[in-house]
Amino acid sequence: MSATTPDWMTTGAAHVWRPYCQMQTARPPQPVVATHGSRLVLADGRELVDGLASWWTACHGYNHPHIAAALHDQIERMPHVMFGGLAHEPAYSLARRLADLLPGDLNHAFFAESGSVAVEIAMKMALQFHINRGVTGRTRFLSFRGGYHGDTLATMTVCDPEEGMHSLFTGVMPAQVIADLPRDAAGEAALDALLAQQGSEIAAILVEPLVQGAGGMLLHGPDTLRALRRLADAHGVLLIFDEIFTGFGRTGSLFAMQAAGIEPDIVTLSKALTGGSLPLSAAVASRRVFGAFLSEDPEAALMHGPTYMANPLACAAANASLDLFEDGTWRSDVARISAALATGLEPCRSAPGVVDVRVLGAIGVVEFASPVPVGDLCARFVDEGVWIRPMGKVIYLTPAFSIPDPDLALLTRAVRRIAGVETAAVD
Ligand SMILES: *Cc1c(COP(=O)(O)O)cnc(C)c1O
Q1: 51 CB under 6 A from ligand 1?
Q2: What metabolic or biological pathway is this protein involved in (predicted)?
């Protein structure tokens, strides 16, 4: 740690266990003391342009005054109450607004605090949907190579099994069926054959629509999603879209499912739900799924209820974030960012080791042939004045929709420089 390391970091460092981190060898993290717009302010006063919007959450930029005002107002009145037996305006308004925004009859929101827990709840809903209808034996899930759905034990089982994050735990939890995403008629036929064999054991198909995010920003088309809808219906299986990354405009439509014109039976939301201010997630079910839980039988109810579920402060932030989507400027912002990412990253295609450059909505990706040294690259990006944290084989940008053009240019320039296609003298 350097001379400018703040005291709190020096004294606390021995006691904090950091995420995805080999604590013995990792470089120290960057001490952040403030945020504004698309920038992080470090303890030594330097500002970094944030290329990631804090793991894709801060879609309107940091400290948005409208979200801040909603938080101030709510914190004075009621920061939290339990949701068992009590109701409050922020959650009820949010549930109604999500139902209005989501296509089809995805109308029934169950709130939680993290994405992983929302996925677990969606998985429970799917399992119990079949049980409640008297169908037995549908105890497994079908998910896809390249997928990521969280770090908790059950969500690990539906992540890509080869991918380094969770492969250590193979055998700990029941194995799910992991397949290749169908990308053409042959792929759909192969999955159809798999489901003909194992479909009666499957409760639901689980997929991140259009972009497999944490698995490497892998793209697929709307045809894939339509094929999954057809296959799910043909084999009596539910379809769950995990829109925790893609939801709220990131891919260019408010929800990725809208690009395919189909709806899943359950959708999970989190990340940008509160505009990057507080933890909140939701599993939103269709009328049919919700209907399977309506009964005279108490056993047919969904037995779930996280302590902090539907936290009023978080719901107030989410409502304020939804307000900011209402005027539609996010659409032109995502288009503006998309164009800048395409032109700004394209030169990287000729860089050594680069195998692909791709852009969808406000997501820009430079993929390398092999995994990149994350810690070293983060440090070099900090020297360039930007905050970019590569993942596996990809360097990617997912900035706030509000990022000003000059900051966006700094991000793409930094990626070009680290990829080795631009030298310091060139601007
Ligand atoms: C981040 C993410 C999750 C997990 O969310 P957490 O809040 O980290 O638990 C699940 N699914 C997708 C698609 C994600 O991007």
Answers
A1: no
A2: Cofactor biosynthesis; biotin biosynthesis; 7,8-diaminononanoate from 8-amino-7-oxononanoate (SAM route): step 1/1
DSSP per-residue letters across 167-211: GGGTTTS---EEEPPP-SHHHHHHHHHHHHHHGGGEEEEEE-SSE
- Whether residues 79 and 29 fall in one domain: no
Catalytic residues: 20, 148, 242, 271
Same domain, 339 and 397: yes
Task: Give the structural domain span for 12.
Answer: 7-63+328-419
Strand partners, 220: none
- Our answer on whether the CB atom of 384 is closer than 6 Å to any ligand 1 atom is no
Is 0.85 surpassed by the pTM of this model? yes
pLDDT digits (tens, 9 = 90+) for 342-400: 999 999 999 999 999 999 999 999 999 999 999 999 999 999 999 999 999 999 999 99
Place of tokens 């970019």: 388
Query: Is residue 425, in this structure, part of any structural domain at all?
Result: no
What is the count of structural domains for the chain? 2
Do 384 and 405 share a domain, yes or no? Answer: yes
Mean pLDDT over each residue of the chain, to the nearest integer = 96
